[in-house]
Amino acid sequence: MKDSDPSNIATVSSHFVDDWLTALQSCTSPVQLVSMLKRSGMHTNQGRLVHRVTLDHIVRLYQIAAIETEDEMMGLWSRPIRARALQHLLTTVREATSLPSALYRFSSFWNLLLDDFQFELVDEGGRISLRLLPCTDQPVQRFGHLLILKLAHGLMSWLAGYEVPVVAVQFAFERPAFAADYSVIFPVTASFSAPVSAISFAPEKLGLPGTRSSSELNDFLNRAPRDWIFTSFREHSQSLRVREFLYQSNWENCHLNEAAEMLKVTPRTLIRRLGAEGTSFQEIKDGLRRDIAIRDLQSGRKSIEEISQDVGFSSAANFHRAFRRWTGVTPRSYRHTSP
Length: 339
Known about the structure:
Number of strands: 8
Number of helices: 16
Largest sheet: 4 strands, antiparallel
Distance between the termini: 19 Å
């Protein structure tokens, strides 16, 4: 059965969360960390992840770790963020009369809690930027920077009732090998090696916030971090629009020309734009094939042979080789460790 939302089957590299696991090691024991990873459904070898990570994995690990570490940011910052801090943050931004005002409230809130960084809200005359300024010379925590900037975007989108467009997002660390994973999270292509980490919005796109009830606030908190990290694919990068088109179509038989026609561009233009995002039409199809296989293995409703055929492999042996290349483990092993 096909899920109507392609974001529900997206996966990211295990290296995407390496910094998060390093932070968790500082506030948990090795045994506790392995237990948390296992309960979240992640496959490990000597405490390290060995396969791709689904969005559900990330949500489950956050929900487990935030409680067990007694830190709602799970060791990502030098000072623990105690329970109910995020609830107070939502209560604060919910009272804002405009989205720029909500961004100001967001930055002021975190500036009371963070020691190693401070937020600066800057009106650059055409964009409003939320910058994360370092207060120490500590190394940049990549996952921490991603999570807190996406929290700002997620809260703005929650208040607005739609995914707020982003003009730019930049990070104060070198481009990682898994840079393509950032396009799953942010609705714009991320840039790296910037002076500071920041997220920028166009003022004219920041409409009035909606009215959010206490029950809606509680739903947002109970689902955290799903609704702030994974807002939508609708306004995301060209590559994710192609992925969504493939997912909603007969993707195995779709060609580049059909995707270009859907996007109202020439095939050559689409090739160029996908190349600028570090991918290609074939890579997008292969990634979708991989994520569909992972979803079906987790659901347990199909045999490995059926999944192999469904995702277009001529033999189960070829599927096994491809799956091991994708995740580092066999399909049978992956299914055995999935929740």
